[in-house]
Automatic annotation (TrEMBL):
Record localization: Secreted
UniProt keyword Signal, yes or no: yes
GO-annotated biological processes: carbohydrate metabolic process
Protein name as it appears in the record: Polysaccharide deacetylase family protein
Main location: secreted
Keywords: Signal
One GO MF term: hydrolase activity, acting on carbon-nitrogen (but not peptide) bonds
UniProt keyword Cell inner membrane, yes or no: no
NodB homology domain boundaries: 89-279
Gene Ontology cellular component terms for the protein in this record: extracellular region
Length: 279
């Protein structure tokens, strides 16, 4: 019995110091890179549109530099202090709006490279072509989610536009009070409107895809205390801005940084952009 106990103690010790890397990785603090994409189109290289081959170059360069994608759930658990198996260079890929190009261009590349990404959809735009850029539909969303590489999360139900406020200033509708017949919304009416939009978006995504909606990207990066309060009440645990920078333990989960993956960036350029914030 004593010999068996000794063997168990030695075995436990060896596992603790050599065979259980996730314990070390979960306690060591990491700088987490969160990339922001929007649209993809051949021959276009703008701040929000990336050519397919440029996208591939960016992602392959990051993989070769040691970056590994993690999911939003891994990030949420890590920021909440839970034990998480984190790679040395964690990478979160976010794609805003839910354009058809996310499905036809980005998804096949991500699946081929075995990289996780989260697409933040404007829910009321599924399967429609507002303006001139088409959006993927729910069947296409289900296909992507079923692959295991794509998650779908909240970018509001239809609050992705700007309004003119009572003082004549243009503001994103998520943070601006509407004016109807010359009368401005009350604080209570404003809060109820935001609650209804975010609640409806969450309910529709969960009903269509069967996944948990617990993260949000702010349209135009605009937010205020009311938006944060409503979103957290609805169960959102992570919320992203458009402020550039890395994510670190101790950061507010409601004001997370993202680095824009500019369409003009080569893979090497994007790597330099990320490393700029690591110093």
């Amino acid at each position: 019995m004593k010999r068996l106990l000794s063997v168990l103690i030695v075995t436990f010790f060896l596992i603790s110091v050599t065979g259980c890397g996730w314990t070390n990785s979960s306690t060591e603090e990491k700088n987490i890179t969160v990339l922001m994409y929007h649209h993809f189109a051949e021959g276009e290289e703008t701040s929000v549109t990336v050519d397919p081959e440029r996208l591939r170059d960016q992602l392959v360069t990051l993989k070769e530099a040691g970056y590994e994608t993690i999911t939003e759930r891994q990030l949420a658990d890590y920021l909440n202090g839970l034990e998480v198996d984190m790679p040395d260079k964690p990478l979160v890929i976010t794609i805003d709006d839910g354009y058809m190009s996310n499905y036809t261009i980005a998804y096949p590349i991500l699946e081929e490279l075995e990289m996780h990404a989260t697409i933040y959809v404007i829910v009321n735009s599924r399967g429609t072509t507002p303006g001139y850029i088409p959006h993927f539909d729910w069947d296409e969303a289900r296909e992507m989610v079923a692959s295991g590489w794509i998650d779908i999360q909240n970018h509001t139900f239809d609050h992705h536009f700007t309004i003119e406020t009572i003082n004549g200033k243009e503001r994103p509708v998520l943070v601006g009070k509407m004016v109807i017949d010359g009368v401005e919304e009350t604080d209570e009416q404003y809060r109820e409107r935001i609650m209804e939009d975010l609640r409806l978006a969450k309910e529709v995504i969960e009903a269509e895809l069967g996944n948990e909606v617990f993260t949000l990207t702010y349209p135009f990066g605009a937010f205020n205390e009311t938006v944060i309060d409503v979103a957290t009440e609805l169960g959102h645990q992570l919320m992203y801005t458009v402020k550039p920078g890395l994510v670190k333990k101790g950061d507010s989960p409601y004001e997370l940084n993202r680095i824009n993956a500019d369409g003009k960036f080569t893979g090497a350029d994007l790597l330099k952009e990320i490393e700029k914030y690591s110093k």
